[in-house]
Structure formats: C-alpha cells, structure tokens
Specification:
Elements lengths: L2 E8 L20 E7 L17 E3 L17 H18 L5 E3 L17 H5 L5 E9 L5 E9 L4 E10 L4 H17 L7 E9 L6 E8 L6 E2 L6 E7 L5 E8 L2 E8 L5 E6 L4 E6 L5 E8 L2 E8 L5 E3 L7 E6 L5 E6 L6 E6 L6 E2 L6 E7 L6 E7 L1 E7 L7 E2 L6 E6 L5 E7 L6 E7 L6 E2 L5 E10 L2
Parallel strand pairs: 3-4, 3-5
Antiparallel strand pairs: 1-2, 2-7, 5-6, 6-7, 8-9, 8-31, 9-10, 11-12, 12-13, 13-14, 15-16, 16-17, 17-18, 19-20, 20-21, 21-22, 23-24, 24-25, 25-26, 27-28, 28-29, 29-30
Helix pairs in contact: 1-3
Length: 460
C-alpha cells in the first residue's frame, strides 16, 4: 500500500504565557496528516435525487491487532467502535441520512474493510456502507482509514486516511463524516470544525461569563478565560489561529485578539465608551465593532493589528452588529434609525446604506451566510425567533419558534444555523442548532449554561 502525504497541520503549538484574564491555553495537540491511497476516488452515487433517504451502515472500525492506545482503555478494538459512533452521530444530527451505528451491526474483520461482504449489508437494507480501520503506530500515533461503498453497485465511492495523535482521534472520525457527507451531497463539509461561545454561571443578575471553545458536536470543551472579567461576543479568525472577543475589565470594554497557539492576547481597542460586537472581515485584516459616543452608537472599522478606527455609519440612533458578506464587499447590520431595530446593508466603506427588513416587528443580530445567499437574524414580534432572508430583504422564513432564540451563527457550509435559547423565568441559556429547512433542531451539550455561539470554519 502506497501513501502520499497531502497536508500536515500543526494544532495548538502551545507556549503558555500569562496574559490578563486568560486561563490555561488549550492543551498541546499534534499533527494531523491526511493520507490517500493510490488510485484516489472512484464510482458514482446511485441516485442523487434520493440522497435524503439514504440508509448508511457504519459498523465498528476494524484493527489488524488490538493494541494499547491512550485514546481508549480498550485498545484499538474498542476505539474502532468509538470512531464509528462519532461518525454515526455526526451524520444523524444533520437530518439528511438514516445512519445505523456499530452497536446494532455485525463487526467486520480487518480483511473485509477493502472487500466488504455486500450481501450482509444489502440484507440489512443498507444503501451505503462506511468501513474503516484504526492502527496504532510504534510512535503511538493512530492511522485511521475510511471507505464509503455503494452497496447496490458493490462499488467504492470514496476513501481517505489520516494519521493523528491519540488526543485527536475524534478529528479523524469527523473527517470521515465530512468525506461521506461531501461525497453523497456534493456540498462542502462542516463536522471537523469548532465553536466558540460564552459559558455562563452564577445567579441571573450577576452572571460570570467566560470565553470557551469546543468541537462542532460539543466534545472537547475548554474554558479560555478565567471569568475575572466578563467576556462577550467571540469570533474565530478566518485562519483559525485567533479568537476575537470583547472583555470588560474595571467596567471598561476592551477588544482583544487571543492567539490560540501561544495563549497570548493583543489589545485592539479600549474605550470608556460602551463598545460592542467585534467581527472579523473575511480576509482577517479588519475588525468591525460598534461604539456609543454621546448617546449615539455607530459602526467602526479598525485594522486587526490595532491603530486608528474609521467610522462607517453616522446617523442618530444605534447602529450595531456589523457582519461582512463572504466577498468582503458589503456589511449587514442593525439600526434603529427608522424608530425600531431593523436590518440594513451598506458597502464596506460605509456608502450606500439602505434598509432591508420591512416585514413588521423588529429585526436584530444579522449574520451573512458563508454562501452569501442568506442572512440569518433575530426577528422580534413578542417572542424572539431565528429567521433567514435573502440579501435583497425578501424570502423571510422562520427557522425556530420558541420564546427567546437569538444571535444566529452559520455552519461553515451555510446549511446549519446555531443560536442560543433563553428559558422563560429562569434566564438559563443553552446552545441549539437547526438546519435551513427549520427541521432537525437539537441542543448542543455544554457543561454550564451557554450563549452567543460563533461557528468557525472547517479546520485546515
């Protein structure tokens, strides 16, 4: 078997350095190598029009011999089942497939990974089959292989493999799920990604708010800040190396950029004036934020390296929540210049400002889709509901129907919207997500209450 090294990714090359209000940086990770067997991809999807109903069998990943690994107390045999469980959960939670996981399926042997017993799987009404293996190398790293088969055609559709440190075994599972999702839907993937959010604890009127990150499925949760200063509105940088967020120290708002690899953070702006909602430009060179001066809140732009700010809006009232279009040429934001919160759009230099929302009620927290074809926002008509509209202001559709859902953020492929929900009376908050159909709503697990999610891009 011949392998070709495609990419090497360095993660969390930690060099912990003390910084204001910053806790322990994320733990040391390692490298993820993508390997691809000679011959590449082959085959075709059986029926592209019916992919929403595809049943997928995902038995436990096989191993050539059970070897000890820090990734699992049961060795590589037990880890093989855990890999299949993660892939099953990924594919199940987006509502597009009917996956069956390893606990309800026979365990294939190692030789069957490249020579499936198709009659076994057709007898179980499986249309697609995911096979895989896991092996532990002499250096402790894991090699994980992933194969997608069309059961009816008895054909291989895709294959890929990865070499990961034991701590990153779940990333290999997410990459396999991404491979299956992309091959069967033709869409870009999103499982191997991370989410930043605000972790909340304490009483309703005195909440401690800490910056936290986790995997896209809620695993590998980590706190980034200690909670001595209140953290708000995090956003991943486009290259995944930094986190942008707002911190209140001594009641003064400061915008910081936290370097995930080193644990250091840089001050971008600080002011005695209220400051809100920092956001990256798509190229990572600029940061939008809002600041209230003399009772008038406008949107400003500052270099990601710091320096003087440029005011982009200059109207009476509150202009806030700027979000760039994917090409960086336009900015969507909310403003109450008409007398109530509504959604507006302008060019990136602040010119040609115009209102988009004309459907009654109030509209807030707009976020442009990575595809560029939708804008998610909070529609307020008594209750707070997450909705989408096109960039011309038409085609409004509700995605949620609860008491208080707000602050939508997009999955990297623009197909899932994540938001936070506040419980009536208690004020407790939690993270949820829903797909663009408005179906398949589910709650993401977090160790404490959570708000203001920000979904980062797919990991490189």
């Amino acid at each position: 078997m011949k392998y070709a090294l495609a990419t090497i990714i360095s993660l969390f090359l930690a060099a912990p350095v003390a910084a204001q209000d910053v806790g322990t940086p994320p733990p040391v990770g390692g490298e993820v190598e993508t390997i691809e067997e000679e011959g590449g991809l082959s085959g075709s999807v059986t029926d592209e029009s019916a992919w929403e109903d595809l049943s997928i069998a995902i038995p436990g990943f096989a191993t050539d011999r059970n070897q000890p690994t820090p990734a699992s107390s049961g060795g590589t045999s037990a880890l093989g089942k855990e890999l299949a469980r993660v892939i099953t959960a990924d594919l199940k939670n987006n509502g597009l497939f009917r996956p069956t996981g390893p606990d309800a399926l026979p365990q294939p042997g190692f030789p069957q990974i490249t020579a499936p017993a198709f009659s076994t799987w057709s007898g179980r009404s499986a249309e697609m089959l995911v096979h895989g293996y896991v092996k532990a190398g002499s250096d402790g790293r894991l090699t994980v292989g992933c194969y997608l088969y069309d059961v009816a055609l008895q054909d291989e559709l895709a294959r890929a493999g990865w070499v990961v440190p034991p701590a990153d075994w779940r990333r290999a599972a997410h990459k396999c799920a991404d491979l299956v999702y992309s091959r069967l839907t033709g869409e870009s993937p999103f499982f191997d990604s991370r989410i930043a959010y605000i972790a909340e604890t304490g009483p309703k009127d005195n909440r401690t708010k800490r910056l936290a990150i986790m995997d896209s499925d809620g695993a590998n949760h980590r706190f980034i800040t200690t909670g001595r200063s209140k953290a708000l509105t995090p956003r991943y940088s486009p290259n995944y190396k930094q986190l942008l967020y707002l911190s209140y120290t001594d009641e003064n708002p400061r915008i910081y950029v936290y370097d995930i690899g080193t644990g250091r953070q840089r001050l971008i702006t600080q002011s005695s004036n209220p400051t809100f909602a920092p956001r990256w430009s798509p190229d990572g060179k600029w940061i939008l934020y809002s600041m209230a001066v003399g009772g008038n809140t406008d949107i400003y732009r500052v270099s990601a390296q710091g320096g003087p700010s440029v005011r982009l809006t200059d109207t009476p009232g509150i202009d806030i929540g700027g979000s760039y279009s994917p090409d960086g040429r336009r900015i969507v934001f909310e403003s109450d210049r008409s007398g109530s919160q509504q959604i507006y759009v302008m060019n990136a230099d602040g010119s040609r400002q115009k209102r988009l929302s004309f459907f009654g009620g109030r509209a807030a927290t707009p976020e442009w889709s990575p595809r560029g074809d939708q804008i998610a926002f909070t529609h307020i008509t008594g209750d707070f509901r997450v909705a989408v509209m096109n960039p011309q202001g038409g085609g409004r559709r509700y995605l949620t129907n609860s008491w208080q859902d707000e602050a939508p953020t997009w999955s990297p492929n623009g197909r899932i919207v994540q938001f936070f929900r506040t419980e009536r009376n208690s004020g407790r908050t939690s993270l949820w997500q829903v797909d663009l159909t408005g179906d398949n709503e589910r709650r993401l697990p977090t160790p404490v209450d959570a708000s203001d999610p920000a979904w980062g891009p797919v990991l490189p």
